[in-house]
C-alpha cells in the first residue's frame, strides 16, 4: 500500500475481455478471496449518482438523456471511487479502462501515489461461446448476480435474495454480436498498450474454478521452498 497527499492505492488488478467472457464472475470470486473490492464502471457511476455530489448530478443528467458518459467524467468517477478507504489494500477494475486515454489517466493516478503498475488479465474467448453464454443467462434484478439457464427455464429465483431472475432485453444474438464487434474495435489498442507490462492472457472458456486458480496463482504465488541443509558426515567433509 502507498500513500501520498491523503490518497492511498493498493495493487490495481484490471480485467479486460469481451462481454460474457466471465470477468464479472471472476471479479466477485477474487474479491471474496483477497478481501478487496471489485469495482465496475456501472457500480462507480451508480455510487456517484447516489452520493448527490456535483459530479453525480452531472452523470445522472447525462445517463437520463441517453448519452454516453465521456472519458473525463468516467475518469473523475474512478478517481473518486479509488480514493475510498476500501481500495487502500488493492482493487479489481472490471470494465475500466475501456480506452487508451482512460488507461493513461489510470497510470498517472497510480504513479502519483507511487503505487505498483497494474496487473492486467485479458480474458480471451470465441465469439460463438460468448453468444451461447449470454443468450442463456438470467440476472437477479436486485443484486445483479448472473445465472446460466437452459432454454425454456422460467420462474428461477436468486439463491442470495430469492428475487425472480430476468433475461435482459438485449441478451439476444443480434445485439450480442454487435456488442462484440464494438468491443473488438476498441479493445485492440488497449491490449497493445498493456502488453508490455504485467499482462496475462486467460483462456476464458474453462470452468470458473479453473480460472480462479490460475488468477490466484499469478496474484498469490506459492512460497518458494528453501533448500534443506543437511549436516555433512565427517568422512565426506574431508574430501569436500
Keywords:
disordered C terminus; 5-stranded parallel β-sheet; alpha/beta; 240 residues; 3-stranded antiparallel β-sheet; disordered N terminus; 44% helix; Rossmann fold
Descriptive notes:
The chain has a domain of 130 residues: 3-Layer(aba) Sandwich (Rossmann fold), CATH 3.40.50. It contains nine helices and ten strands. A hairpin with a 2-residue loop joins strand 1 and strand 2. The longest helix is centred in the last third of the chain and has 22 residues. The protein is globular. The termini are far apart.
Radius of gyration over C-alpha positions, nearest whole angstrom:
22 Å
The CATH architecture assignment of one domain turns out to be: 3-Layer(aba) Sandwich
Number of E-state strands = 10
Biggest pleated sheet: 5 strands, parallel
How far the N terminus sits from the C terminus, by CA atoms, comes to 47 Å
General form: globular
Name the CATH homologous superfamily of one domain.
P-loop containing nucleotide triphosphate hydrolases
CATH topology of one domain: Rossmann fold
Helix and strand topology:
Blueprint: E1 2-4, E2 7-9, E3 12-17, H1 23-34, E4 38-40, H2 41-51, H3 54-64, H4 71-82, E5 91-94, H5 100-112, E6 119-124, H6 127-134, E7 137-140, E8 146-148, E9 165-166, H7 173-194, E10 198-203, H8 208-219, H9 234-237
Parallel strand pairs: 3-5, 3-6, 4-5, 6-10
Antiparallel strand pairs: 1-2, 7-8, 7-9
Helix pairs in contact: 1-8, 2-3, 2-4, 4-5, 6-7
